Amino acid sequence: MPQRFTTPAGLFARWRVIPTLICATLLLPRLVQAEDPSPGEAIYRAKCASCHGAAGEGTLKSYPNPLVGERSIGELTDYISKTMPEDKPGTCVGDEAKLVSEYIYGAFYSPTAQARNKPARIELSRLTVRQYRNTVADLVSQLRGPGQVENQPGLTGRYFKSREVRNNNDRVLERVDPVVAFNFEDKSPDEEKIDAHEFSIKWNGAVFAPDTGEYEFIIRTNHSTRLWINDQRRPLVDAYVKSGKDNEHRGSIFLLGGRTYALRLEFSKAKQGVNDKKAKERPPEPASISLEWKRPQRVEEVIPNRYLTTAHPTESLVLKTPFPPDDRSLGWEKATTISKEWDQATTDAAIEVADYVVGHLGDLAGARRGDDDRPAKLKAFCRHWAEIAFRRPLTEDLQKAYVDGPFDKVNDPELAVSRVVLLVLKSPRFLYREIGSPAESKNDPFDVASRLSYGLWDSMPDAPLLQAAAKGELATREQVVAQVQRMSKDLKAQAKLREFLMRWLKIERVPDLSKDAAQYPAFDAAIAHDLRSSVEIALDELLTSDGADFRQLLLSDSVYLNGRLAKFYGIDLPIDAGFQKVSLDSNERAGMMSHPYLLSDFAYSASSSPIHRGIFIARSVLGRTLRPPPEAVTPIPPHLAPDLTTRDRVSQQTKGEACQSCHSMINPLGFTLEHFDAVGRFRKDENGKPVDSTGSYRTRQGDTVQFDGVRDLAKFLAESQETHSAFVDHLFHAMVKQPIRAYGPQTKESLQKSFVSQNFNIRELLVESITASALTTVDANIQTAAKNDAGATAEK
Fold it and tell me: pTM for the whole thing?
């Protein structure tokens, strides 16, 4: 399948064919005119082409955007009848409007026509920022080894009867603690084995980071403590010997989401870490300790049990180098262009990695200072480094260029290592995903391995996957599916899939949920934090369930609540209750669309917002394309129309013809959620009037469906082919980061049929999507051209 490339040689190749394309474009209308136009085409030429262009391409002065979209013929007919032509609206109606709509739809407007007129192509893509960081982390981790991966929730706590945690002879107790949140008061953790005057505890394990960003770890204790995160040599928090009465200690660290990091916490009940021989002559002092964190853009909390494990992962290299953000205008990270800022960031990151590698050669290369064979070990390490980074074995030429050359030119082996690392990380063979295969190969197994790993993990292949590629065990569908099923169980795959669902729900970034304090005085940052946690827990439960049924996202009548949320939403739970699934009135709520977190997000500070809610349903759930509004309009504040309901105000504000082109779809969808206020609480009336939650939707087939509330809407959406098709689109684009149409005209239809036949299992859809993308044959000539283009860019 041809690829689009934006590097210099590729641009030159494209410029050579542009004159031909221009000539063909200019001749196209004349060729068409040589034949008798259809009635619809004749109407289009007479009334529409002057503004929209002969082939719907748009005109710079009047309508710069091409005439493409996803409305049905019926919707186009209605729209044209009411609004077109713009200078004489209402003069193209009835059969004329229908005929011209049919022509527009078939010639250039519909998705099918778009695919025919401008076929999508698999584009040559560099690593996205996320992929770059993950790849570097996994590159180093593969050289270190995975560490201990067998685990259970919680941390392993080892309790000592002395003030020192390093004397195993004093260890009297070992157990798994779900969380670290203890108030021992003036007592002992074990009255029979440990004296309450003096004891120490060491917790070991790992912490899972669900998000990428800056984490702040907080230890609250009145005694001595130290904390290590990831780097086990330098503590993130060191308050083992302290002065004063500061009982709160903090440390911040940047972590990549979807990974576990080694954690060690030490606590000593003594006199500020100093041996106090007279301590036992006094009554025992109170002692307490809690381990908390503040996730990116969240509130402080004790680290929950679901993010702690007893595993012992090896240290990860988490880059500190800042990168410019990737283009996400299409809904997924698009990485088809190179900017000076991105190129400079890769250089800075390569230098950072080189410094790290040289500083850790002992454990990475097994080459200790003073070893006679140190130079040979370092050279062998560099070959291994290059092979892992390039995701394939080194040829003899690559060995000479990337390994032998640097070692031959300098006498200092550490300097040679640094040069190798820099060369490799700046090579297009590292920065791009599929430019390393030989020209005679159309579907190189190592490219298949990269498609699998970057689709599932946003990172490089692991050792088992590379071994399968080397053995030729990625040639058949069955072999690829087996690898996908293995890899999909990895935490990185689960984290990426959950993040996709958060993006599908339009809550991938933590929003500002500030509400009117006078109207909602109890809604604070803690409530907003708990609501987001409720969504996360629900998504994790769904994705790990046997069925992983997509329809439950739309139909479930249960929600996870803790005591604080239950009190706010009027549910009977103890105030200190942890998160648990609570079934609600099935007539009131339906799935994520009625989850209080989403409803609070798609709302204003003092009122609901049918527009925001309707846009979410139209775009995310139904996959409809909505153009930006022609002009910004300030919503009518509730206090300026106190006698109107929100529905009345929105209807009044969007009644104009220019608004109705989109709001005729948006409003009736959003109105179905009007039983929920700005914080997602159910209500039966507003401003003394009964809430009207009726709505409607005109399908792509032209049928109009009526709804009475969110439950009706949810049932329709759960069974709608439009919903299924949109979800397939969203998932494929988020995971593969390429247009689904580029993988053949039948790919989307095939995935949709598979989705239905597998009872809407999201994990199975993931398997099928990644498998389809991995087995797509890429033309070898285009691949080789891309390789040369990328090489030219790297040299520049």
Answer: 0.87
